[in-house]
Amino acid sequence: MSADPKLKARLGIALIGVALAVLPFVVGATFGNSWVRIVDFALLYIMLALGLNIVVGFAGLLDLGYIAFYAVGAYLYALLSSPHLATAFPALFAVAPGWPVWAVLPLGALVAGLFGVMLGAPTLKLRGDYLAIVTLGFGEIIRIFLNNLNAPANITNGPQGINNIAAAQIGGHALNRPLELFGVMVPGVHLQYYFFLALTLLVVFVCVRLQDSRLGRAWVAIREDEVAARACGINTRNVKLLAFGLGATFGGVAGGLFAGFQGFVSPESFGLLESVMVLCMVVLGGMGHIPGVILGAVLLALLPEALRWGAVPVQQSLFGKVLIDPESLRLLLFGIALVVVMRWRPAGLWPSALRKRELAAHGEAA
Amino acid sequence: MRLPSPGAARRHCTAQDTRRFVDILIQQIINGLVLGSIYALVALGYTMVYGILGLINFAHGEVVMIGALSALTAIGLLVPSGLPGPVVVLAGLLIAIPVCMAVGFTIERIAYRPLRNAPRLAPLITAIGVSIVLQQLAMMGWGRNYHTFPALLPVTAHKIGGAAITDLQIIIVLTAALLMAALVWLVTRTRLGRAMRASAENPAVARLMGVDVDRVISFTFVLGSGLAAVAGVMVAANYSIAHYAMGFMLGLKAFTAAVLGGIGNLGGAMLGGLLLGIIESLAAGYIGDLTGGFLGSHYKDVFAFFVLILVLVFRPSGLMGEKVAERA
Amino acid sequence: MSAPLLEARGISKRFGGVQALREVSLSIRAGEVYGLIGPNGAGKTSFFNVLTGLYSADQGEVRFDGQPLPLGVPHRIAGLGIARTFQNIRLFGAMSALENVMVGRHIRLHTGVLGAILRTPAARREEADTEARAHALLRYVGIDRLANQQATHLSYGDQRRLEIARALATEPRLLALDEPAAGMNATETAGLRALIEKLRGDGMTVLLIEHDVKLVMGLCDRVAVLDYGEKIAEDVPDVVRRDPRVIAAYLGREAADA
């Protein structure tokens, strides 16, 4: 007697739910709290990857400047939750603005979304590779501005970045301080985890709903054949702008969370390499496939730590010294992974059935 | 040397002020020509590959970097030998060129050829991957520090009014011009050049006419990489330094130049390169004054990006490209 | 005589050195099957593409149901009621047949981002309706049994039918078919003819580009002939087939004089 598939699905979800709920405690006890921090970052990456997935995976628009939206969200949070504006513009800000997180995050999302539409608008008529280069250019322009907007008016504090960013506060409790719950002392990183998890689940939920909707179908149509999509009455310009805008929104939220978590932002966290890394997560995981993208994000979040853990001792034992430091090794492996995956598994590690069929169809047509 | 501000000019625009303005202008144009010649050489590599494969060879900038660094290594080894400076540099060049050609050949074979029939996104993502790999390998091989290019070439400056042009700059511009002329001769007057043009226009038909299109593609990559090597040495000599991360910006700007001139068009790449070099030079020189001190010269990188975006949005076929009619 | 459903006046279009269309004017009446024929290179597809928005016209205008048509904006033309198929079938290959037709419903639906995320009752109703209508359209063209098959796995003839179903999903007033019989054998062509006649019977106006002269002459109420970008005839098939200019265009001057 086999179990009813719906029951199996519900059981699966329940198990995952339990696992997610206790994850930080298990990880913290087994590996230490620094690994819980890594899990927190993994959640941020998942949000970023899902956002980019809307642009690259759903709509098929290769955006190489996505990290700019992360930066916008992060800097907005930083400006509204740190002493910077008060020190830089004492005439305008007598007291440092200390906006609550439930105001800053939506604002960050909105501003990032607007940037998404702004940056997407000029690219609408461009083909794949040109689109990629233009978005890359936009990403770089934003980074250069962040790096240089410290004179004549010190808006971003230039290469030094903005520090002393206050952590998010929920119910009056700052998330970077431990909280006593039911007699258990819950560390800050654990609290951040639950906060990030809630928002990540929201992002996943929104993406799943969008995928199976009129808009999601329009995105796939544009991806497959834009001319035919237009002939079906789809306003490709608006649909593409929606992709850019919505994708950017998630980046903005993740950016705000990042700023509050790290307490410090600087332009060097938001360069082309970071954009490529998020792209890696989407491409390697499985473009357009939400579980695949989550897998990609998790892998790429854990990989540098695994490398840091293992690369040095392995090299020591093999060669007697460290030939490649873990950071370079990570990047080298990234590059190689991109080439290898595109060659042998272009649909990604965990592609959707649709994507596999698309690639097969393309291969047949060639 | 600051430009007199417009207000000051109105108050007393002397002959001396005008001379200074012209001197700065001439100097910036000279610098722009030098920079532009380098951009043109690199842009040719991009445009040839795009013309024949429809692919933006993202990794091309890194090939320039490899040219610079391998030449530097060779030069470093030869300097103690006591040979005259120009000979050492030439030797460095003769080492860098085959190295880069080999790199270009390998990239095409391993990364791009298997993806000939893949959807558009795949070769571009692969190109990014190759670019990252090359950068990391270069960093592992040559380290993170900046390498100085020894002063081996004559730098006597010749005055033109209040501006100056050095021997090195003259050498760069002349060498670039010579190479470009040679390339044009190759493409227009030889059988191989015809094969290249045919493959770029219609590879299927070219194959039917007996052209080994795969060989032509390999050759295109090799040729572009050779030019990149020369450009790399020029950059290192002109700025006296080379660094493992120098390829990225340079590559992007050269690509902008190729697009500006009309991607796929050789003349366009050369024109675009020179134009971009001059635009960038003038912008770097005057941007502070133009924006009242709001934007400084460290924004000059942004200029290339703006040019790129403007061209792609308003005139994607570039200056010399044909406006492609939209036949369905 | 009622006003024509579609009226094109003085449409001219140039591609580089080639004048593809020279002041072409024609009118299509509601409910008729209107054929557009002519030798290769005559400008049929160019005209078709201007009508359906793929190209803008250099000169001239088109009025659809009395309103001027926004040339060069395909999605708005589709919204106004002109749907088209493509000569070399442009389906969304990896999607199923059903999903292809559901995409066709896009302009007649209203669910936006919020509706999709919140899955409001209105959104759910629309989704259910979309799926139902898609099935109905697949039944209409006769391929509902293939609803969950991947589009590229359908036979050529069935792919054409699918494309027609997708076009019908946009609720058009004018269905424009670009060489629908291309590459079809006699049986498939007969099936296509039956489908077009069924459409006419249900009140649809059809514009047809075709090379299959027998199909056109037997099926169409009226026919226009283009040659070198100019309209050289526009009348019922019997008159057109005997027009000396038409014969000359297809077969050369001697045949016309014969």
From TrEMBL, chain A:
GO terms for cellular component: plasma membrane. CDD domains: TM_PBP1_LivM_like (cd06581). The keyword Methyltransferase does not apply. Its main location: membrane. GO terms for molecular function: branched-chain amino acid transmembrane transporter activity. The chain crosses the membrane at residues 12-36, 42-62, 74-95, 101-121, 128-146, 191-210, 241-264, 276-307. It is found in: Cell membrane. InterPro entries: ABC_transp_permease (IPR001851), LivM-like (IPR043428). This is High-affinity branched-chain amino acid transport system permease protein BraE/LivM. It comes from Methyloversatilis universalis (strain ATCC BAA-1314 / DSM 25237 / JCM 13912 / CCUG 52030 / FAM5).
From TrEMBL, chain C:
GO terms for cellular component: plasma membrane. Residues 6-253 form the ABC transporter domain. Keywords: ATP-binding, Cell membrane, Membrane, Nucleotide-binding, Transport. Pfam families: ABC_tran, BCA_ABC_TP_C. GO terms for biological process: D-alanine transmembrane transport; L-alanine transport; L-isoleucine import across plasma membrane; L-valine import across plasma membrane. The keyword Mitochondrion does not apply. GO terms for molecular function: ATP binding; ATP hydrolysis activity; L-isoleucine transmembrane transporter activity; L-phenylalanine transmembrane transporter activity; L-valine transmembrane transporter activity. This is High-affinity branched-chain amino acid transport ATP-binding protein BraF. It comes from Methyloversatilis universalis (strain ATCC BAA-1314 / DSM 25237 / JCM 13912 / CCUG 52030 / FAM5).
